[in-house]
Design brief:
The chain is mostly helical. Helix content is 51%, strand content 4%. The chain is built from ten helices and three strands.
């Protein structure tokens, strides 16, 4: 049975091209398209015909639905891009108003809790991957896209390619983290889980990197096994470092 691909309208294709021209990430592009589609469903007609009052009604509708401030602001950003860039009608979205987001003090893990979590990670690969997130302060997407060649044990640094802001940078490699990585390295080679010059943390197929979803799942399983009841996320490991 052949797969039928949904045709892309000229308007959506133009928006996609506009986002690609500005090198927006694939995740951002998907979110922008989704938010414009949601507005279109609310409007009940082509967004090309929308006016400022339609956008005002939509924002009021979102507020009345209890939409979280962060989510609301993300939708506003997408619509401002669509009307301002793709349609070249910035005046239509000019009165869309981002809402204040109250700053909350994030929950962080203590050194003792991080130690318990890493010990509960279950496998050398997950211990090393979570250890990199904590010890080097890397984001999940940065951890899973590390290659074997990004680890410089002599200079004690980790090369992070195309991190946040599409910039390359170096992160410090502590002796303790290097020990974790070496333990994973020896285990992976003994079981033929890493390809020469390949991904440092491969998926089930070593040709592909481990997914961020898989790493997040490993974090929460380790948190539960370690008996940590705090409502923390993988991102909390980076906060624990600072």
């Amino acid at each position: 049975m052949s797969h039928v691909t949904e045709p892309i309208s000229p308007l959506r294709q133009r928006m996609i091209d506009d986002m690609r021209l500005r090198k927006l990430s694939a995740k951002t592009q998907t979110a922008y398209i989704r938010n414009v589609k949601e507005f279109t469903r609310f409007l009940g007609r082509s967004p090309v015909a929308a006016n400022a009052e339609d956008l005002r009604r939509y924002q009021l509708y979102l507020v009345e639905q209890g939409t979280a401030s962060g989510t609301l602001n993300a939708k506003i950003t997408a619509l401002k891009f669509f009307f301002g860039t793709t349609l070249d009608r910035p005046e239509v979205a000019r009165k869309l108003s981002p809402v204040h987001q109250p700053r909350k003090i994030p929950l962080i893990l203590s050194l003792e809790e991080v130690t318990r979590l890493l010990q509960s990670a279950g496998s050398p690969k997950y211990q090393a991957a979570l250890g990199v997130a904590y010890g080097a302060g890397l984001r999940a997407s940065e951890v899973v896209h590390l290659s074997v060649n990004d680890i410089d044990s002599e200079r004690r640094v980790i090369r992070v390619e195309q991190g946040k802001g599409q910039r390359d940078r170096y992160a410090m490699l502590s002796p303790a983290l290097l020990d974790l990585l070496r333990a994973w390295w020896h285990h992976a080679h003994a079981h033929r889980q890493i390809l020469p010059g390949g991904w440092l943390f491969p998926g089930q197929n070593p040709v592909n990197p481990m997914s961020t979803r898989q790493l997040n799942r490993a974090f929460h399983q380790a948190r539960k096994a370690a008996g940590i009841d705090k409502a923390v996320s993988l991102h909390s490991l980076r906060k624990a470092l600072t």
